[in-house]
## 1
Amino acid sequence: MTAATTPVFEVRDLTVDFDTSEGSFRAVDAVSFAVHAGQTLGLVGESGAGKSVSVKAALRLLDEPPARITGGEALLDGADLLEMTSRQLRRIRGRDIGLVLQDPLTSLHPSLRIGDQIAEAIHLHDTKISRRAARARAVELLDLVGIPQAHRRWRDHPHEWSGGMRQRAVIAIAIANGPKLLVADEPTTALDVTIQAQVLGVLREIQEATGTAMILITHDLGVIAELADVVTVLHDARVVESGPAIEVFRAPKLPYTASLLARRSAIARRGPDPVAREREVVLDVEDLVTHLPSRGGGRGAVVHAVDGLSFSLRAGETLGLVGESGCGKSTLARSVVRLLQPTSGSITFEGQDITTVAGADLRAVHARLRIVFQDPFASLNPRRTVGDIVAEPLRIQGRHRNGVRERVAELFELVGLDHDLLVRYPHQLSGGQRQRVGIARALALEPRVLVLDEPVSSLDVPIQAQVLELLGRLQRELGLAYLFVSHDLGVVRQLSHRLAVMYLGKIVEIGPAATVCDRPAHPYTRALLSAVPIDDPSERDSKRRIILVGEPPDPTRPPTGCRFSTRCWLAFDRCRTEEPELEVVDGRSCACHLVVDASSTAATALEL
Amino acid sequence: MSATADEIGAPGLVGRKVTAKGRWLRAVVRRPSGAVGAALVAVVAVAGAVGPEVVARDPLAVDGPSLASPSWTYPMGTDALGRDLLSGVLHGLRTSVLVALAVALAVIAIGMVVGMVAGYRTGRVDDIAMRATEFVQVIPRFFLAIVVVALFGAGIDRLVIVLGLTSWPLLARVIRAEVLSLREREFVDAARADGASSARIIVRELLPNVMPSTVVTVGLIAAQVMLIEASLSFLGLGDPNVISLGYLASQGQQLLRVAWWASIFPGLAIVVAVLGLNLLGDGITDALGGRR
Amino acid sequence: MTRRYVLWRLVQLVPTCAGILLIGFLLVHAAPGDPVLALAGDSGDAAYYDRIRERFGLDEPFLSQLATYAGNVVRGDLGTSYTRGLPALEVVWARLPATLLLTTTALIVSTIVGIAVGVAAAARPHGMRDAVIGATSLGLYAAPAFLAGQLAILVFALRLGWFPVQGMTSARSSATGFGHLVDLAHHLVLPVLVLAAQEIAAVARLTRAGLLDELGRDHITTARAKGASEARVLIRHALRRALLPVVTVIGGRVGHLVAGTIVVEAVFSWPGLGGLLVSSVQARDTPIVLGLFLIIALTVVIANLLTDLTYAWLDPRVRYR
């Protein structure tokens, strides 16, 4: 782009050490990067690679101590931030540099009004501006980042807004004074994929409108492919590769970058081997409804978390269940294994109705119908050794009375864990090892069905790939059936034979994974697939983007008619009054008036 | 259950577990606050347990010259009647420790049950338990104790009962808050998915995790109880049949101009005990910080 | 703050007050001997006992006795002090100002000084100043009020002679108006400091911990990235929420503070409720003791109410629960 001019912001040989009680370690090692006006620099790497630390250190936002900047320069328009007094820095921060942090739930002050927080950013750099004028400007900014009815809603407190809206407010603060440099530190990691698409769109528009330079810190290569012009890859506190995004993606120079890219596409593309159709149904869910008491909605309000779902699962098969947060997929997973009591409907497991079984019967079901949780750290009791944790189901169920130790050792082997780890505590294990422990515990009693509730969401991409591989192998070896629940289409697709898409407590589309992914029928499925970041920056201009407006409605009061109608760009009158049923269309089932009508019209047309 | 539990827990695992716990204790003691706190608490415990027997002087007997300043023979001096103050302080400390221990036991018994139940069973049970806890918490226990003294006469037994019945809300709230957050953690769900009963979950999953904060909180409550007991006997409302640090301090109050030691040493003994408990609590909280 | 929330908290007062009343009533009846002795002392004549029996309905069934007692208390009739022959409320009323002066001054001083000290410690954590403040507040926190009082008398009154040893006014001083106020203030300094010391320590420790906790949060980074100065970050952004636990504690410790006042009054011979309480207990003047208990309990209940309302004002999320 504008490579010939001097960069707006340049970091040279930055080195940062951290002093801890166990000695000091180097978090950033001679890192250099530069970004020009109108350009986006993608800073990519796994967690702990030093990407966020290096930028925060350059902006002098790290606590020193424990951090210690031991060398380098951070030049904004040629002036070194590392040499500045705190007064000089203060004048630059917020005026010339704007910052967007990862978690919108924590990056706004919880008890100040949102409009006032934006106005403060203006006021700090323009003390002469009147309170009223600063507020008016804040409303303008909220409008600019796409907050509907900003003139009314600036008075809200952050807890009244959703994550996506809060992140827009944080962006409004960052751009309040028209900065030369906008730093976004994992700006969409905490958001759902359709909301991520919205926020990335906002960032893209702002950059086009203002010509600001942008540094985008992320672990997600898809986000880089969507936005970055140039890329710097960090690994173990060092820069391992940098260059124009298109080149880095097309021909990565270093094996590390190549492996990072390869793993990503491996997850996204490959599907599992097909399963024989005649295998018996092991799990059958019929019209399942689970309503949860609402926390904030007042007395008697219920969350329609799962609102009439039916599906079945065959032996050896994986059914992927995809949806965004709040769609009820976790509630469904927990209802199926009876951690939550369904409100109505039925669950049949191995021919037995288990919807209301209790006591010893339920315990017997729990032996064969198991669940693996999302957060392997939270799902392991911190005060017990992992060997003890894996042995627990054996003890509870009174199995292997005389060989618990042998069985635990066997399970460790099965999931690829070293025997030395048996006596460790969860906090002494890595994330991947912990999730293997979770899987070993689930396998302890020789189950038929595993419900996998976001089993890899908390893991780094390479570790995700390993755990998914393990799950695939276990399925082939042990003939397990999986109900695989996740928000991440790429991950689900790798293991799933069939795929179900959930929206606000309902399945909107279900069918063979390849059909649903390659020829999505339901508008929501299409939007969801389109929101998944692209694999390669060269696709950036050719891709057709469907960016949904707004956010999912409140599940305590689901809309009448089709639940997606409030966000659907194709909705017509009937969608808002009449609820569509799942109907077979083109090799899958889809709940959409438009799609069903179109296909029957097409069929009629064909007959004529 | 025990047979199978021993199976896996048997030789190797149990042994390692103990070392893990040992390491945890070392983590507490390695911190300056933890080390000093543990030392002070140990001193108070030993002094209260065997002190009076080691310094075998009758605290009520006229033993030496009156108002002798601290010396080798009378390390804390003597009072107006020539009674040995060290011996008095040791006996007073014993009273203090006994009252604190007895109240702590009652607090653990009531507070743990209420906190566990309220945290684990939400809904109406939780509501009732929390209303009760809030109610007991607003009762000014110092003054309730005074009312009881006025109506029933002074005595260690009733003091322990009143303080035991009114000091548990803090513990109950702490445990309830912990259990509420632990319940949200997936390992409790995981245990349920293993088929574990509620009792097993409470005992094996929740209890070990609330132990550290229970220890810290009970320590804080014990310190408060010591202060209350001392204050009551300072006001002359303590049990007339036992020696208390507060009583000694109030005797010394009249001698403040001539014999500072008569009131300062009993007071300092309380400081050592309370400071020790607070520091130890800080140390444990600190050591936990990195673990959770 | 929503009106509904305030109303709801007010409604909750009723069962609490009823419960406290019930405790007092039950204790009187559980005490050894005829309740009339507990209510009227053991030196009255038969006619006097009869009058008391009638006034408290002691010949009636248990529940109607409770109703009579509750009715009396609600009307402000706490019984008659038989050592003084005056209504208990009147006796308490006469001594109240001295105690109130001591307690309120200590509450205000400890809140302001405690928060200031906490901010000073958190501004540069783990530095020299922080360490000194930390050690001092730990010591103060552990010291019983009587020890702190005795030490203060030894050092500031007896050795340095800066302040009077005891009392509320100088016996010989006949000064009026401004002179009287100065004399009063001079006597007030040591008791207030002693009484406030423990609270200052508690408030400072909590403020510091709350601030450090807040300062580690993301919204603080956002504030710094806006270009806010450290002072502004500390006071405007961090302090507001750091004070939440402090508010809770100040309300919760009112009972503690009043208890401390009783002890400090004994140390400094302050002519407040403390002396009255102790002498009444020793004389078994139950109406006074029980009346004081009810008044103090009510004060604590109201302090807790104010705490909750302040909390809701500081943290808007509470109001919606």
## 2
Amino acid sequence: MKTLFKELLFPLIAVLAAFVVGGILILLVGDNPIVAYRLLLGSALSWPDGIGQTLFNATPLIFTGLAVLVGFRCGLFNIGAEGQLYVAAFATAWVGITFASLPAVFLVPMCCLAAVLAGAVWAGIPGVLKARFGSHEVINTIMLNFIGIALVSYLTQYHYKAPGDPILQSVPIGWGAHIARLGKFIPGLPERIPLNLAFLLALFCCFLVYVFLWRTKWGYEIRSTGSNPAAAEYGGISIKKQIILAMAVSGALAGMVGINEVMGYRYRYYDGFSDNYGFTGIAVALLGRNHPVGVILAALLFAVLQHGGIYVDGFSEHVTKDIVQVLQGIIILFVAAESFFKYMSGKLRIKNPGKV
Amino acid sequence: MLELRNISKRFGAVQANDNVSIVVKPGTIHAIVGENGAGKSTAMRIAYGFYTPDSGEIYVDGQVHEIKSPHDAIAVGIGMVHQHFMLVEPMTVAENIVLGSEPGSAFALDLKAAATEIRKLSEEFKLAVNPHAIVEHLSVGQQQRVELLKALYRHARLLILDEPTAVLTPLEVEEFFSILRRMREQGKTVIIITHKLSEVLAISDEVTVMRDGKVVGGVQTKDTNATELARMMVGREVLLRVEKPEPKIGEAQITIKNLTVTSRDGSKPLNDISFEVRRGEIVGIAGVEGNGQTELMEALAGLIEPSKLSGQMDFAGTDLIRKDARSRRELGIAHIPEDRHRRGLLLDFSLAENSILGVHYRKPIASGPGEIFLDDGAIQDRVNDIIKNFDVRPPNPVLPAKALSGGNQQKLIIGREFHVHPKLLLVSQPTRGVDIGAIEFIHRKLVELRDGGCAVLLISAELEEVTSLADRLLIIHEGKIAGEVDPKVATLEEIGLLMTRGH
């Protein structure tokens, strides 16, 4: 309990500090921070639209947060979740279009598998490059972001777009690839809200990632490699295998964004759908202290900000939804500065007891 | 010269110094001994102004001084040389020495005068240091002398040396001691912090023994001996000699033939080595550090890429050359690495998680379908077993390994490696940075393992350790075996010559 509190303390301080600094900025541009924050939080937490939409927004962030987390635990920085989720979303749609006539029993698992595999392969490439040649995963994942995003954009434009469609999107996927929206099961939640089964899948993945990393031998090997590669090697663990495995798992998790987007929301591939989910996932993982439970909490927070931002934009005089970007930025800054604060507090602790 | 009177210092829950009083007479070499964590370094850091004491006074030349920073300490003539050198490696000796008190005006650095001064000091104390040499090109022993010069250049009359011999080879230690004696002749006062009793007896005039933050005794060196000092340090009788029965030697467990390690730059840190280790014997490897010992152990443990290896390693009929670390472990090879922080431990992981490294993937630790899941019960059994049999303290499996003292970390590693009942144990520097009490324990365990029929290959920088533990002693020099001696009859001079000259 005490350690849990300790773990949560710093992220909480970061969030509170961000709100304080953000409040000052709101004051400076001439609005009342309390009104703005009430708009922000009130809209995101209203039932059913606010909460439904917020949970929907949180879904891709949970996936990408987990993806970045798995990389981090192996000592890898996967900043290619963005490219991975695009490639995976397209692959999901491709299967849903190509096998459109299949019944849901087959098509749903096939599409899910496509999302997971495409993500795993796209992240696996930099994994293999690192293991085989030692080239840095940060460079390669960034590069593959550009390649992946351009590739699926090209395929959509020239091969999978409905003729005459002015929007850059694919033809619809088959009915058998649709997954249910949660409005179907929850009274009072209208079905127009895109919150769907992928949200439950995301929560389940948090559980799976926890079990995988902390309860299986594979997770032990990945974490050992991340914690001290020389010791892992000494313990008979192949570091190369762990790098490839961790990248593939990371990419698979990022790829599941495609399930939420294609199978649960738009039922087609829509180019440019991602609101920087892959990059926000880095912040989610950091704020969530690289723990699955933390990732859920951090993803929810970021989702609240995103959704509430729209309302702030519409209903306040001066503040725009950019305030959300500012808040996110400050939170990240504070979280990233953690080691600095720890260092400072450590210094103070050594100096103080000198005088009694 | 220096007197600490009733110094107390507390860090959080730890009383690092409890009413410590030490009198250091001018013109003497004064040793402060004690186990790790006894408070010797804390006391000296207080004298040097790194820490301010919670209570107590510091007297220099009979006058009370408030030493709040190293600056104050230097001003009253106290200098300190740390265990880890504080030198800027790409810069010259002179530049390093003047750093912090650069001579000349604000715009021009007058190194010439400094160099002359340094040369004069170097000659006075026979340090043989060239002021224009680049520090990173110097040997560790020479770098240490630069540290001494740094203190002397600032007119230190009292030098505090923290574990100065930990980084030196036996010959360098001898040289270093003659420098210290010369300093004493010139009227300097020296405080030497150490836990090596032989050195205390060899160099010091007076000894202060510390334990658990308190001074437990002060004696004239000529009136004491190692056994008495050890008893004062540990607080009980300690066996300094390794007691071991005659070895019952069996067949060869590993036969190494023409083993060569070629690095990427073409050099051969290990060059055509052949020897064997038989069941029931401890083979010791002595040598100056950096003569291929690390490579030998890593090559045997499977931690060097097979493409860099040539030769044969016959392990009771199996050639190991192409086998990876995991399959070697499965064959019955255990390894206690020389650097426990780099290789041996996952410092952020708990004791429990550390206790399964190397066996985490197989029964009984891994269980369930496909042996995928870690079995908590089995892990607990294992870690508790190790904690109990190897007296790991504090005995709390959920603590991270970094929370343990060096000795306890080492006991955890040794416990883990012994737990698999190895056929061949590779062990490097088993007692580096480990308390006397734990050293005795570790030595006993190694002998027990040998008597159980295990083949043991031991590498240690402590000559005393290899000569007292080993049944046969090989000397390694520049990647080759320079000779084999019987540790029972060989003299230290004989071994020392093989170590440095190679013949």
